[in-house]
């Protein structure tokens, strides 16, 4: 295994994911599908990694990530790092798309994709501040590493680790129930027993 190998896991589906609500710094429980996705991540790790104890494991402090880590990592207890918490989305948090459109019609209509929502959330953290805290995390990180975190956090980490800038992240997906492996600046999505290029 390369000393630079990093494995990224997004938490399983939550109730708010299913309802289309932005969670950000808030939380909601994993659904039954979310629990199965975390179990699938455990199987993927067991298939591809002979010994999880060789890795330094980190997780966001938010309960959805902690629950996923407990399932996916089994007996390996991750280091909880607050810098891995999801982007704070301010007034968007807890709202469905319809509720955002009703409460903030002009601003919501101006957002063309998820990244616009994250960047423009009223009272939110913004992607630049998120990037700064994730850069600081990477400087302190011990490798090889497994990280259990969130959609936007993992997208930005993928950009930092593969040399993509923020505009390039708009085209990336952030799947649940898979493991994304990054080594030497290249990423591979591990899904079940198959490997697919992103």
Automatic annotation (TrEMBL):
What the entry lists under SUPFAM superfamilies is as follows: Phosphoglycerate mutase-like
State the UniProt keywords alphabetically. Answer: Glycolysis, Isomerase
Q: Which InterPro entries does the entry mention?
A: His_Pase_superF_clade-1 (IPR013078), His_PPase_superfam (IPR029033), PG/BPGM_mutase_AS (IPR001345), PGM_Phosphatase (IPR050275)
A Pfam match is His_Phos_1
Q: Which PANTHER family match?
A: BROAD-SPECIFICITY PHOSPHATASE YOR283W-RELATED (PTHR48100), HISTIDINE PHOSPHATASE FAMILY PROTEIN-RELATED (PTHR48100:SF1)
Task: Name the chain's protein.
Answer: Phosphoglycerate mutase
* The organism of origin for this protein: Gemmobacter nanjingensis
